[in-house]
């Protein structure tokens, strides 16, 4: 295929404009889509390969693999077609920019830019791996950097769909020698960890301008990959953090089992490093163990005569936390973990160690009528000395100004860089009415109790706050959350509770579209009431964009990723949430649960055991630990994990049901059936989700019974269905037409 006759030619509804480049698997042209009036890139299979059925098959596979993916770090594929002359081509998005290869040829990249590119590539790979697709040829030439900085992974021509077993032939076939993993070089089957290796090689090259494994000939490069250790990055470039070297080394370990086991884990380490390095230009080369700027705001002590003024103290501290999370370069521990030290005489250094922060803010509030006395001190964890302290004797109407001053003082003393946008967020006020604010704080305080009485009281106070200030969007969002809570704990039918919550969430967004809490509330309603995944994902992304440091936003986004079947991405986000909430039992339990759903059983066991040690009275981690043991065939350990919960602890029904499932898959059929009968009898007296029975029936091989129970869950809008696509419990039902129909109803396809 010569270039000359192609330029100006119209193929299908594409007019060829110019040649963009070529590689081993195709020639790429810029073209105009005459139907949709847009510029596209057309990739043609070279004519000399049209008779090569294997090459042609890989070319089709590229289009199928890439078109199945919808991610902002993966090149968008529009269609695959063939001309009358048998010339095959793919139509894809055309971006302005350059390849990473072209960028590296100009010189090595700045540290921050290299890390950000690696993160974006990792995010695209996490998406692909989550759908069973392995690229197998990650290299700078296949990574396109758009002018806006967004990275696009291109050329899935070597993608290996899950379930295929054809191995790469040594020295021939898939991959480019310098970026091949050891298993590819040996001609062994390559899984997702081969992409992690190649990304490690690419990151090495971005930082040094050199390849880690070199040789005069292809075979000598392959020998180096199998037998030699690369020269340390720090020997080729000064100023590289030790932690970054460790990340690259782990990505390029020759044994796949010792490498990062998922793109999500690699991204998590890169994100943590990026956060710790911040946006400064001078970067320390020593190992980093804490974020450069980090703070935890402890609960303020109530020195008022009225013990019920605790709500005001908590509200003050929480609002300062919320303001500080808007500052991009500051790591702020979330409320649950920071407040876990309430009333405890714990050494400052111990608190800092447990929360992994360098500074703590503690304070006290004395409130009498409309007068306030607030004392605060910012403490350096390393030596216990005060970095700053202040006392405020003001009127209640000055409370907003006080919170602004405290937040600003913290960022000043910690020398945090605050861009103009962040400054506006730092000082944002949701109401100017002190009385409305006071009522809102009471609503938040009661809502945190997570009881029927608490949620009802919260509704009452939020409504009073809104009456005082009808434009108080944060109170409207709080009212939405309270209604959701009433639905979740079963005090209101979900369709009623979520219906009320929807009205308030939409109202809050109309008042203030930049309110992350409102978008999060609406996202949950779209997901759990409407099963509208597109709308839910849009709202989650909006909430996350507005407040990327909000642990609850990250946690709920991870939950949606689990629902969609993107377990690896979910693990990555849950690890971020745990970093922000290191002492939250719920967050730690959810991380263990997500590891189980990602089928990373050994990691799940370790995480869930750790969570149980944190709080032996919290039942959730026992449930997921037992299920994890069951998937590993460790039935004795699984049984012992939940046996004690069935009578003496909370979560008895859930534990009893899990025990029934363990019996069903371990051959103790009679005992499993007995638990089924027991749960049915109990359901006549109190609520018992059909999900419990469905799980046991699945273990017993009674597909029809199991699916019927799941259908009843769907009718009840049971949140347990969020695990349907990922939980290995349902693996033996995945080809059943009834199960597939249920997935379709949940907008999860097949």
Structural class: alpha+beta
What is the percentage of strand-forming residues? 5-15%
Q: Please give the share of residues in helix.
A: 40-55%
Cα-to-Cα separation, first versus last residue = 40 Å
Q: Order of strands in the sheet with the most strands? A: 1-2-3-4-6-5
Unreliable segments of 5+ consecutive residues:
158-174, 279-291
CATH topology of the domain at 98-277: Transferase(Phosphotransferase), domain 1
CATH architectural grouping of the domain at 98-277 = Orthogonal Bundle
Question: Total number of β-strand segments?
Answer: 17
Rounded to the nearest angstrom, the radius of gyration is 28 Å
In the CATH scheme, the class of the domain at 98-277 would be Mainly Alpha
Describe the model:
The structure is a single chain. The protein is of the alpha+beta class. Among the domains are: about 10-95, 2-Layer Sandwich (Phosphorylase Kinase, domain 1); about 100-275, Transferase(Phosphotransferase), domain 1 (Orthogonal Bundle); about 295-320 and about 340-410, ABC-type transport auxiliary lipoprotein component (Rossmann fold). The protein contains 32 helices and 17 strands. A 6-stranded antiparallel sheet has the order 1-2-3-4-6-5, covered by helices on one side. Strands 12, 13, 14, 15, 16 and 17 form a 6-stranded mixed sheet that branches. It has a 3-stranded antiparallel sheet with strand order 7-9-10. The longest helix has 20 residues, at about 110-130.
């Amino acid at each position: 295929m010569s270039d000359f006759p192609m330029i100006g030619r119209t193929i299908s509804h594409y007019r060829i404009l110019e040649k963009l480049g070529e590689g081993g698997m195709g020639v790429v042209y810029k073209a105009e889509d005459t139907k949709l009036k847009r510029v596209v890139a057309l990739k043609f299979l070279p004519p000399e390969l049209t008779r090569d059925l294997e090459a042609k098959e890989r070319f089709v596979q590229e289009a199928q693999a890439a078109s199945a993916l919808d991610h902002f770090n993966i090149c968008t594929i529009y269609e695959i077609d063939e001309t009358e002359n048998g010339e095959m081509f793919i139509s894809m998005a055309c971006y302005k920019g350059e390849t990473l290869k072209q960028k590296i040829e100009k010189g090595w990249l700045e540290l921050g830019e290299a890390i950000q590119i690696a993160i974006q590539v990792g995010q695209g790979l996490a998406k692909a791996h989550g759908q069973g697709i392995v690229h197998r040829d990650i290299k700078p030439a296949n990574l396109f950097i758009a002018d806006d900085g967004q990275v696009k992974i291109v050329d899935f021509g070597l993608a290996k769909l899950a379930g295929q077993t054809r191995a790469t032939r040594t020295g021939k076939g898939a991959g480019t020698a310098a970026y091949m993993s050891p298993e590819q070089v040996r001609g062994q089957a390559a899984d997702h960890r081969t992409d992690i290796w190649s990304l490690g090689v690419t990151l090495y090259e971005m930082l040094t301008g050199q390849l880690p494994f070199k040789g005069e000939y292809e075979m000598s490069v392959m020998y180096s990959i199998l037998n030699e250790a690369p020269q340390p990055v720090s020997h080729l470039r000064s100023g590289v953090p030790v932690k970054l070297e460790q990340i690259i080394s782990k990505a390029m370990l020759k044994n796949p089992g010792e490498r990062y086991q998922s793109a999500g884990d690699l991204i998590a380490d890169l994100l943590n490093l990026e956060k710790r390095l911040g946006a400064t230009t001078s970067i320390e080369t020593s190992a980093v163990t804490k974020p450069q700027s980090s703070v935890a705001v402890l609960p303020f002590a109530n020195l008022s005569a009225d013990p019920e003024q605790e709500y005001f103290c908590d509200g003050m501290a929480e609002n300062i936390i919320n303001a500080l999370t808007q500052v991009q370069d500051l790591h702020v521990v979330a409320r649950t973990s920071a407040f876990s030290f309430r009333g405890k005489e714990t050494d400052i250094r111990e608190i800092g160690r447990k929360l992994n922060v360098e500074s703590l803010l503690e304070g006290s509030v004395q409130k009498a009528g409309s007068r306030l006395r607030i004392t605060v001190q910012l403490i350096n964890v390393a030596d216990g000395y005060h970095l700053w302290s202040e006392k405020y004797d003001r009127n209640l109407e000055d409370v907003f100004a006080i919170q602004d001053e405290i937040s600003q003082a913290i960022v000043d003393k910690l020398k945090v860089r605050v861009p103009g946008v962040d400054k506006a967020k730092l000082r944002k006020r949701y109401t100017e009415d002190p009385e409305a604010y006071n009522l809102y704080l009471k609503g938040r305080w009661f809502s945190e109790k997570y009881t029927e009485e608490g949620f009802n009281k919260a509704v009452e106070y939020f409504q009073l706050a809104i009456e005082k200030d009808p434009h108080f969007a944060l109170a409207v969002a709080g009212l939405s959350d309270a209604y959701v809570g009433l639905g979740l704990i079963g005090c209101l039918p979900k369709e009623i509770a979520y219906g009320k919550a929807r009205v308030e969430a939409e109202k809050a967004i109309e008042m203030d579209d930049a309110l992350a809490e409102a978008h999060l509330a609406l996202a949950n309603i779209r997901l759990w009431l409407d099963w509208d995944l597109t709308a839910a994902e849009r709202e989650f992304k909006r909430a996350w964009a507005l407040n990327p440091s909000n642990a609850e936003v990250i946690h709920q986004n991870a939950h949606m990723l689990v629902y969609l079947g993107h377990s690896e991405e979910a693990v990555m986000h849950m690890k971020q949430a745990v970093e922000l909430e290191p002492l939250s039992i719920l967050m730690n339990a959810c991380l263990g649960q997500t590891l189980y759903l990602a089928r990373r059983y050994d990691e799940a066991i370790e995480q869930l055991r750790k969570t149980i040690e944190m709080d032996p009275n919290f039942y959730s981690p026992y449930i997921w630990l037992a299920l994890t043991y069951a998937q590993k065939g460790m039935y004795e350990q699984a049984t012992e994990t939940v046996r004690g919960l069935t009578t003496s602890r909370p979560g008895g029904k859930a534990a009893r049901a899990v025990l029934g499932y363990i019996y069903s898959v371990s051959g103790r059929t009679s005992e499993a059936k007995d638990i089924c009968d027991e749960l049915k009898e109990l359901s006549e007296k109190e609520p018992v989700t059909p999900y419990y029975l469905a799980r046991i029936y699945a273990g017993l091989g009674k597909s029809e019974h199991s699916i019927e129970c799941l259908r009843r869950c769907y009718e009840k809008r049971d949140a347990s269905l969020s695990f349907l696509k990922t939980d290995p419990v349902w693996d033996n039902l995945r080809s059943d037409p009834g199960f597939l129909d249920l997935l379709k109803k949940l907008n999860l396809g097949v």
